[in-house]
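lol ok so funny story. i was supposed to be doing the assay writeup but got distracted and ended up predicting the structure for this chain instead. priorities right. anyway since i did it might as well share w the group, maybe its usefull for someone
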Amino acid sequence: MTDVLTREITVLDPRTGETVGHVPIATPQEAERALGRARAAAVGWARTPAAERAAALHAAASAVRDAADELAASNERETGKPFDDARGGVDAGIGTLVQYAELGPVHRGRTLHGSWDATDFMVPGPRGVVAVLTPWNDPVAVAAGLLGAALVTGNTVVHKPSERCPLTGRRFAELLAAHLPEGVLEILDGDGSVGAQLAAGDVDVVAHVGSTATGRAIALDCARTGAKAVLENGGNDPLIVDEGVDPAWAASQAALGAFANAGQICVSVERIYCHAALADPFLAALTAEAAAWQERLGPLVDRRHRDHVHGHVTEALAAGARTLTGGEVPDGQGSYYPPTVLIGCTPQMRVMREETFGPVAPVRVVPDFDAALLEAVHDDYGLAATVLTPDMAHAQAAWRALPVGTVKINNVFGGAPGGAAQPRRGSGSGFGYGPELLDEMTTTKVVHVAAPPSR
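and the output, tada:
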């Protein structure tokens, strides 16, 4: 919660509503000074041997490992994410830092075949200063990727963690900065105004994970300044339940996708298309799954976000949808919201068109697989999609047709390590993780070296 009079952020525990802490918002002058320090440090850090940069990242990963429980507890206090889930995010972040520490020194260019008396090659180099703006729903894991890739490739960074978890974000970044030269990693606390200043400032890359609206504003800034935009923004991820799958298993997958972390995951299931032949047993099983999830669901990040989620649900109900379970704001402290299953949903409803980002499973019953795929494809986002089907021809058709960065067949979460995807449309642009993120953080220069003519 931002107080415009005191220029500070008040962090509330979403489980109890109690105050966790107060964080001052950086002034425009402080932001400019941070950008200046990062710019001044850029030349020296770019010239630092890749192995030394990697060693610094390894040391930072060890420091984060030592503070893992502290970071997880802080995350739980600020966002309500259950401790074990928060600790899993920290562990993922540690693994990501180690991954980039290993990949950085072997990130390489290539030679070109030119004339015999010349040498031609392509070499990657750092872009310069990177503004990194990270989200609250997985603050350590996401920041580890963007910060790790930017730093190991020789860029300096100005990092603003989300105003919804500034204490966790700052603590994580401080653990990294302690192993880096002065100015290489600058940290700014603040709200959207600070992020907007960084995005429009003297930077060479803006890397942002967050809402589509903010991502579009950043893209406009980058178009004006010439900075590169690396964006992973909102999603409206579909789940197709095809004829022939076990309805209980499909319901468990749907519930995991819709309810994990109270639906506050970038690739959460946002809309479900169920084959009519499977509708009755699937819906019964999904309702039972929702009841089981009720016992282990944490709160939404704050009451403002809960109002957003509940607004989608109430609009859908007013337009003719029905609840099989959930859909009501509970009494008591905190910002809890129950796992909710909606039926009778139509494509015009916001709960089917936009990112709800809460524990809501809106279901649309369709006559066949082709109808499900047609509606799943028709969307303004392009982050991820899941298809549950025993028919490999349907699986093949789906992954080719769905205009998203990631398609998952018969597994709502999962995938091999090192995979990277490019979101599309309103979901962003560029590789936000994986080895390819090193390419996003570097620029390639072509060099032609020839001997002068002999006298």
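The first strand starts at residue 2 and ends at 3. Residues 263 and 353 are 16 Å apart (CA to CA).
back to the writeup now i swear
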